[in-house]
Amino acid sequence: MKVLVPVKRVIDYNVKVRVKADGSGVDLANVKMSMNPFDEIAVEEAIRLKEKGIASEIVVVSIGVKQAQETLRTALAMGADRAILVEAASDVHTDIEPLAVAKILAAVAKEEAPGLILAGKQAIDNDLNATGQMLSALLGWSQATFASELSVEGDAATVTREV
């Protein structure tokens, strides 16, 4: 089974963010960026599934700026098999809305035909927690949110939720 894992480039969680002087947003100049920690957990779970022989291929996908290549390289270094970058913005200050991301991910999913999509529960930059649910609705797939444990047997998955 192919597993698709969306990953997002965000300000590193150890960095103290600075607000621009005009108050219009976050100053991203010379700020360390990294993979969203919740997406990193999803990549790790996909790798566990591959080690168990359940997953045959792990494809990571990032939607955003060209610099997201670094995030994809991190996922490849962790053990992902392939990476896809969809350049949807040229400016690092441009945040792509969750519905637009979900629509792009749905198109990627239709092309890649994964058996499972593992997404992090939310991005630490905007905390919206919306893209995964929108993607599920667009694909007409079942979903489980806030998973703390995943067990896959054949075409069925059992999910334990955070409580």
SS-based structural class? Answer: alpha/beta
Q: What is the distance, rounded to the nearest whole angstrom, between the alpha carbons of the first and last residues?
A: 29 Å
Task: Please estimate the helix content.
Answer: 25-40%
| Quaternary structure classification | single chain
Mean model confidence by pLDDT:
93
From the alpha carbons, calculate the radius of gyration and give it in angstroms.
Answer: 16 Å
Number of strands: 10
Strand content: 25-35%
Q: Report the total helices.
A: 4
* Biggest sheet record: 4 strands, parallel
Which consecutive residue ranges, at least 5 long each, have pLDDT under 50? none
**Sequence of secondary-structure elements:** EEEEEHEHEHEHEE
Q: What is the CATH first-level class name?
A: Alpha Beta
Which architecture would the CATH scheme give at its second level?
3-Layer(aba) Sandwich
CATH superfamily: HUPs
Topology:
Elements: E1 2-6, E2 9-11, E3 18-19, E4 26-27, E5 33-35, H1 37-51, E6 57-64, H2 69-78, E7 82-87, H3 98-112, E8 116-117, H4 131-139, E9 147-153, E10 156-161
Parallel strand pairs: 1-6, 1-8, 6-7
Antiparallel strand pairs: 2-5, 3-4, 9-10
Helix pairs in contact: 3-4
Compact description:
With 163 residues, the chain is an alpha/beta fold.
Can you walk me through this structure?
The chain is an alpha/beta fold and 163 residues long. It has one domain: HUPs (Rossmann fold, 3-Layer(aba) Sandwich), CATH 3.40.50.620. The strands form 4 sheets. A 4-stranded parallel β-sheet has the order 7-6-1-8, sandwiched between helices. Helix 3 crosses helix 4. The two termini are 29 Å apart. The mean pLDDT is 93.
